[in-house]
Amino acid sequence: GAVLVPGTALVELVVRAGDEVATPRVRDLTVVAPLPLPATGGVRVQVRVGAADATGSRDAALYAQPDDDPDAEWVRHAEAVLEPAAAEEPTLTAWPPADVTETDLTGWYETLVGHGLTYGPTFQGLRRVWTGHDEVYAEVALPDTGVAGFAVHPALLDAALHPIGLLPGGDPATGPRVPFAFEGVQVHATGARLLRVRLTRAGSGVRLVAVDPTGTPVVSIDSLVLRELAGVPGTGAAVRSRYAVTWPVEEISPTDTDLAWAALAPARPDDAVPPQPRGAARK
């Protein structure tokens, strides 16, 4: 029943910020907390990029705040490391590959509803899927919506991830799984409306290579890890609290073993309060 901003949109925002400081490649990005949208109104978003280190890399973090409450705390939803672009551009050869089997997609998105994931029309972009050679190949298309201003439209990239469950060797899940950790994300070309995608296992994650119908590389992800979504944090007091549990808290004698101990210590200031928006007057 919650509407979540997809992880691919968080990646898009961070990539866009990296473009401004010549570090467009996302070395890694972790979704700290899902970003839910309110039933009415919207959210303000900030992406903060730090100074470059000796290698040219920069830390980045993404925050959000309810649009109708300028005094609410800013909540961190993603943290990342940005780096300069890599020269290598991945490619795909013959399409579709030989010796693969096409998957019937009838009822695909209706089945996902039963697993707790409901996709709106813009996100139902999966058109064809093939499996074979321990890999998954797919064609995904963006419905009639604009792509101007995007590196890769988040709905298009999200659709490219939908057939991940067809890869062999996946961990069983009892609930919906969503993108959690990205490594090595690089956009090679913009403006794509149709992608040809190859998904393969990469350690504990999944590697993605996507090209346009002419074979031009569009986007690649070295590794993507999914995580089971158990509830939707991000709006409750527990997530917004300025306090965090620390451990160990003190010496506890054997006679105290029937007691549960915890201590609250101030969280890092940048966990909740990023720089103020430009031109905004804050208390």
Kindly describe this structure.
- With 283 residues, the chain is mostly beta strands.
- The chain has a domain at 101-228: Roll (Thiol Ester Dehydrase, Chain A), CATH 3.10.129.110.
- It has helices at residues 7-20, 108-114, 154-161, 237-240, and strands spanning 3-5, 25-31, 35-37, 43-49, 58-66, 75-83, 101-102, 126-132, 135-141, 177-187, 194-202, 205-211, 217-228, 243-246, 263-266.
- The strands form three sheets. Strands 4-5-6-2-10-13-12-11-9-8-7 form an eleven-stranded antiparallel sheet. Strands 1-3 form a two-stranded antiparallel sheet. It has a two-stranded antiparallel ribbon with strand order 14-15.
- Helix 1 (7-20) crosses helix 3.
Summed up, what is this model?
The chain has 283 residues and is mainly beta. It contains four helices and 15 strands.
Query: Which strands sit side by side, in order, in the main sheet?
Result: 4-5-6-2-10-13-12-11-9-8-7
% residues in beta strands: 35-45%
Contiguous uncertain segments of 5+ residues: 233-242, 269-283
Largest sheet: 11 strands, antiparallel
Q: Under the CATH scheme, which class of the domain at 101-228? A: Alpha Beta
Keywords:
single chain; 283 residues; mainly beta; Thiol Ester Dehydrase, Chain A; eleven-stranded antiparallel sheet; two-stranded antiparallel sheet; disordered C terminus
List the helices and strands and how they pair.
Blueprint: E1 3-5, H1 7-20, E2 25-31, E3 35-37, E4 43-49, E5 58-66, E6 75-83, E7 101-102, H2 108-114, E8 126-132, E9 135-141, H3 154-161, E10 177-187, E11 194-202, E12 205-211, E13 217-228, H4 237-240, E14 243-246, E15 263-266
Antiparallel strand pairs: 1-3, 2-6, 2-10, 4-5, 5-6, 7-8, 8-9, 9-11, 10-13, 11-12, 12-13, 14-15
Helix pairs in contact: 1-3
